[in-house]
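Hey,
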Amino acid sequence: MITMHTARTNLENLITEERVKQVSPDRNEAETRFHIIDYIIEHCLDWSRSEIEVERHERGKFTDYELGSPRIAILEAKREGIVFEIPAGTNKLKVDMPSLCAMSPEAKEAIVQAQEYCGKRGVPIGIVSNGHQFIAFLASRQDGISVLDADAVLFKSLDHLLENFSVAWQLLSKEGLKEKNIVRYLSTGENVIPHKLSARLVDFPKIRYASDIQATLKQLSELLIQDVLETQEVEALFFKECYCESGALSKYALLSRNILDARYASMFSTSEPHPHTASVKNKKKDTFASDVIAEALSRRPIVLIGDVGVGKTSFVKNLVYNSAHEEFKNSLYIYIDLGSKGALTSDLKTFVLEEIERQLFSNYDVDLHEDGFVRGVYHQEISRFANSVWGKAYKDDPTKYEEALLTDLSKKIGSNDQHLKASILHISKARKKQIIIFLDNADQRDFLIQQDAFIISQELANSWAATVFIAVRPQTFYKSKRSGALTAYPHKIFTISPPRVDVVIDKRLKFALDMAEGQIPLETLDFVRVNARSLAYFLKALIVSLDQSEALQEFLVNITGGNIRAVIEFVTGFIGSPNVDAEKIIKHMEDQGSYVVPIHEFTKSALLGDFSHYNADTSLAMNVFDVSSPDRREHFLILIMLSFLNNDGPHKDRDGFCATGKLVSELQNFGFTNNQVEVALRKTTNKKLIETSQRLTFEEDESGLIGEMPSSFRITSVGAYHLKRWCGTFTYLDAMVFDTPIFDNEIFNSMLRKVESLRIEDRYDRSTLFKSYLLRVWRDFSSPPTYFNFSDYVQQENSTFERVRTAIVKNGAKDSGF
């Protein structure tokens, strides 16, 4: 494989050599092929001999060159003396074939011959050359245009080929032809991705700085909705008042119930041994307890599997404080956070042992080194020592006896893990209490630490006779089982689905409001009690909005994909967002006692975060209109993919997954290349719009997102919201206009006129232009899928544009609320 730079240098050398030789342009076809075309194909376009067939005979015809395996192009060679006459004024690389054929019968004859070969052999690309001139065209079209009435790519000479070598490399090199770049080029004329509007902004991405009231609200909301729950004085009351049962399905979810019910389906391959999965949804206390006891007796860790943020920690803490309160009250319970608390240590085993020892002392007043306790732990060993030869030797000398005994005990205490194990067994037996250890947030650490956590949990469960819970994500458990860390994986794992998002948020906001208004005493709040009044107004507005706006509830339920942590962080961020007019909301509440926050306020915050413009790295949303190649049709690749995955049919299994091969094949039917589809799949997976069967995501290196493609995909509620609600709205298009390459120079230049302006009039004009541009590209989309029509989604959301226009006319930019 050669680089484009090397290939261009090789072409320069060929041209120089041809000039030095001053060869008469009268070589026959065989000589032309040998001296020029062979060299260009191999050394300038990077085709290896193993992928080139020459003089291939089929159905009584011989082709000069067939490129690719399987073949993707046929090149018909003519002798050097046959010159293709080019129409005067042809300065572009793209030429219309009717003019070319009318001017040059020789070119027409070669094109017709190559097209005939391609048609009979199912090859999409035809190329003709006399060694100095190259004409490439689409030999098979699906847009109703005759091959001879379409356009072709023309390189008029070797010098012309050299001048435009970057284009030639993109279109005719081995990788270029495999990616079907020439198909897009001849369909749209595009060979480079245009700049995004954001490239013309000063200081992009630009942070919007919060006002004093916004900064105060943000600080208070983080304290009352997130941070305060870490304090023990509130934790028990919080789980009593705010815990929501796992697995309840919301009526606002945009996915079908069978997909939601099958949230953790297909985690394991059916061709390999795997544990039985049992959902804790709707589990009665006694039933779940019996399952846990059975698993604990098998001396294996109890694995709680749940996607990030679904409430694995909350589930166990609710067992502690509520549903299994008596069981935990009559046990020695150790909770170990391997995330925040264990992040500073690299020796996980040492950290776990030290944390167990610390909690035994602080929570149960057990000092592992206290003399009486140590002698109790090793009572049998002390008796054996007394009867040993050393004990007999020092029987008449109590001082020496005690010194020898202490030396022996010191050795036992010195082995920290064995001493702790012996101590745990002694406490359990003496107090008749079960030891319960919960290892949490292991999956917030790197993969090697996660492996160590699994191994430690197995040792604690097997050798220490402890009931061990370990909470992990599906992909962590899957990778650990395959890598061998789970050498004796559990017979059963318990899956945790998220609770209803709308119910969680309602309870959390009311709990925070009670704290802000002083109904829940909290020492931490004493110094901010005065400022909490503004937060209380804001919280009341949010509670009212959730109660009255179904659109808002649908937004929160779907855009976070059941990630409770994400929705809490979003609501907290919204309260202090610089993109939210907090003063207006608080004033409305003070004056009128009620205010319903419009849905576009929430979507704007989700799209922009703390920035003035959409930033793909930080936004909750994905730009579904972005492209990875110079193909304007790719604006709709992700939406078509989401629609196909959302559409019912035989392409999906009972759990909603579509095999990757079927998905790629479907998208290729609409002219998208394998590379375009793979890039879209990787990006969309990492943005949580779709998910893989094993919940895998893709790592990134300097070449982009990497990793093996999984076996299947399905749409998530995040993807469904992008497809069914967002893609045609004013707020979404207003954000994405800056992040989408525009292939129409006239529209792009119109958008540039007030590119820095954030006035609502200018944003409305830009978004309207963007919408019309996308609709125009969609109308030019040949043979669109039956299950997706972008025009319908735009029509569905025209009211969002109308509301902005009405607000501009009525109130002007300053008070429009957008």
